[in-house]
């Protein structure tokens, strides 16, 4: 099982490449930074008796101090979750079930994916931001695009600066400020057309953000680092330009290479004969429906399907399944594979699988990284056609230059009845057997029917350092050497 799961030694000996938060000297600083008073009130208001505190690696050094303070204030037991099952941005409901927890307090960066079992309280990091400089730079950019609708997003660590920045940009009417979709009740208006004061709900909820907008924005301004996955996820949702503010400058972003790679991944999936459904979350609501959706897409294209769940995916774990041609990963929108270049097989998202295998869906540059948008009830869901693919014309693979043709079961039956000399077994492809025949070593040969049947006899006895038959041979060798 070592090839499919990480051992305890790996967790202890692992080198963590993070920038730890500065240690807090006083209790008052800890209470203010981690909003511990709000955490204690949340536990008391909900009558929670077993609460898990989930920390990312860079905050583990403060976990004990926080846990002791909350236990003292509430009189209840709390548990610390460190090494999460999948990603630290996701709420780890699986680990909390080991202690029958009735609530989770999540510290640090979060993807804000909806959970299905337990109530969750988020405590976000608060990084410093020069509000005056930020507003000044954005103002200079908006002067050239006053008539355009601009969606302004904040990285979670800078979201506490949203209101000061919003006040300094109040002269511009076509601004939409996204709110965090963290489960808390917020009456904040996000735009001039927002009806939050009357309907108590924003119209659009995407990727952990909520806001009111008619249509789609003309441009996006993201306040946060360029490498943030939140920036990429929102930039591919809309067709307009995207800018990010970092280190006092506003720069545009381009993801042309990611679009090219998307084409490549789609071709790999079309060529594949076997598909692995890589389950990289057990807490995000709707992941089982996503598994069923991928199965339906693969079955329609006559592709073998295997469901794989190995915790945090890495190249070593997935290399145990060479029979699988490609993986379709079900995870939170901000999940990123480490050392993806080391993987033997490409890993796709459900959105890319939809573009590759669903013939009713036209290719688009606008794509959602949230798999919940493609399951029944999702915004981008399109049901599969009821007919078969027997009338679909074959196409040519752009990678292998070979013709791709899907043979359905009904078409195979017609061919079998018209050509009696052709057996049905020749129409189906056994993916595992074809991979096995191409291997240089195919395992131990059982030699069934080739071994003579004999009665049970006494086997060798002893220990590994010297069995009984080995001791006799060594004694005989010693006597012969002494005689000589």
Mean pLDDT: 81
The biggest beta sheet, please?
5 strands, mixed
DSSP strand content: 15-25%
Q: Nearest-angstrom radius of gyration?
A: 29 Å
Runs in which pLDDT lies below 50 for 5 or more consecutive residues are 409-429
Distance between the termini: 53 Å
* Principal-axis shape: globular
CATH class of the largest domain: Alpha Beta
Q: How many strands appear in the DSSP assignment?
A: 20
How many DSSP H or I helices?
16
CATH H-level name of the largest domain... which superfamily?
A: Diphthamide synthesis DPH1/DPH2 domain 3
Structural class: alpha/beta
Strand order of the largest sheet: 6-5-10-11-12
What's the number of domains? 3
Q: Architecture of the largest domain, according to CATH?
A: 3-Layer(aba) Sandwich
- Annotated CATH topology of the largest domain: Rossmann fold
Helicity, in percent?
Answer: 25-40%
Q: What descriptive keywords fit this protein?
A:
4-stranded parallel beta sheet, Rossmann fold, iron-sulfur, 5-stranded mixed beta sheet, iron-sulfur cluster binding, 2-(3-amino-3-carboxypropyl)histidine synthase subunit 2, alpha/beta
């Amino acid at each position: 099982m070592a090839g499919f799961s990480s051992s305890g030694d790996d967790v202890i000996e692992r080198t963590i490449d993070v920038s730890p938060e500065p240690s807090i000297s006083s209790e008052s600083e800890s209470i203010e930074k981690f909003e511990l008073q709000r955490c204690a009130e949340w536990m008391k208001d909900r009558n929670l008796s077993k609460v898990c505190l989930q920390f990312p690696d860079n905050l583990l050094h403060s976990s004990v101090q926080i846990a002791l303070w909350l236990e003292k204030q509430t009189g209840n037991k709390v548990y610390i979750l460190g090494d999460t099952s999948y990603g630290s941005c996701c709420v780890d409901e699986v680990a909390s079930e080991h202690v029958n927890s009735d609530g989770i307090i999540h510290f640090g960066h979060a993807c804000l994916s909806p959970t299905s079992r337990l109530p969750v309280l988020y405590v976000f990091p608060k990084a410093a931001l020069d509000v005056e400089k930020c507003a000044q730079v954005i103002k200079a950019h908006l002067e050239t695009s006053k008539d355009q609708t601009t969606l302004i997003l904040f990285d979670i660590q800078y979201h506490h600066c949203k209101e000061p920045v919003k006040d300094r940009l109040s002269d511009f009417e076509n601004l939409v400020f996204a709110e965090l979709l963290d489960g808390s009740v917020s009456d904040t208006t996000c735009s001039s057309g927002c009806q939050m004061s009357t309907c108590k709900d924003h119209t659009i909820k995407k990727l952990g953000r909520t806001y009111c907008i008619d249509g789609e924005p003309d441009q996006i301004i993201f306040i946060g680092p360029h490498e943030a996955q939140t920036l990429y996820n929102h930039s591919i949702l809309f067709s307009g330009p995207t800018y990010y503010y970092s280190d006092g400058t506003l720069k545009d972003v381009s993801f042309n290479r990611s679009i090219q790679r998307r084409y490549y991944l789609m071709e790999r999936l079309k060529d594949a004969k076997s598909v692995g459904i890589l389950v990289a979350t057990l807490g995000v609501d709707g992941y089982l429906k996503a598994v069923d959706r991928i199965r339906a897409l693969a079955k329609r294209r006559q592709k073998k399907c295997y469901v794989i769940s190995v915790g945090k995916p890495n190249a070593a774990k997935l290399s145990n399944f060479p029979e699988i041609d490609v993986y379709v990963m079900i995870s939170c929108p901000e999940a990123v594979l480490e050392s993806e270049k080391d993987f033997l097989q490409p890993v796709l998202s459900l959105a890319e699988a939809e573009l590759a295998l669903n013939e009713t869906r036209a290719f688009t540059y606008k794509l959602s990284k949230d798999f919940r948008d493609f399951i029944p009830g999702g915004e981008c869901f399109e049901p599969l056609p009821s007919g078969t693919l027997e009338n679909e014309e074959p196409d040519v693979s752009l990678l292998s230059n070979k013709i791709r043709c899907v043979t359905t079961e009904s078409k195979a039956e017609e061919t079998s009845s018209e050509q009696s000399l052709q057996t049905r077994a020749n129409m189906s492809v056994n993916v595992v057997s074809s991979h096995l025949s191409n291997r240089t070593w195919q395992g131990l040969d059982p030699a069934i029917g080739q071994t003579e049947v004999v009665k049970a006899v006494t086997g060798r006895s002893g220990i590994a350092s010297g069995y009984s038959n080995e001791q006799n041979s060594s004694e005989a060798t010693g006597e012969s050497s002494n005689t000589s």
